[in-house]
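[recover] target loaded
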């Protein structure tokens, strides 16, 4: 599966749009352990700004993408639960 196919199949709630001023996150839920997941800030169409992530977060993002179907569910775009930028995700 290439990146274009993956981005096209990610689901975004139809009632939300970037015009609503809502931030989004790309959420990879764990297949086995409920409650464990990886989430990364993104736009409404699942674009993650890799340049803004820390090196550790970027490594986790690539790991999460590689583990789709093995350890993690296919990612979904959802409204962000964060109220502002997380210092642990964004590079200074």
């Amino acid at each position: 599966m290439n990146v274009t196919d993956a981005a096209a199949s990610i689901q975004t709630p139809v009632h939300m749009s970037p015009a609503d001023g809502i931030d989004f996150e790309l959420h990879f839920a764990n297949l086995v352990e409920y409650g464990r997941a990886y989430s990364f800030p993104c736009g409404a169409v699942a674009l993650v700004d890799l340049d803004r992530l820390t090196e550790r977060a970027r490594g986790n993002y690539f790991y999460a993408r590689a583990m789709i179907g093995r350890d993690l569910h296919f990612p979904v775009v959802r409204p962000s639960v964060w109220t502002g930028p997380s210092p642990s995700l964004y590079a200074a």
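[recover] notes: The helical segments are 3-9, 55-66.
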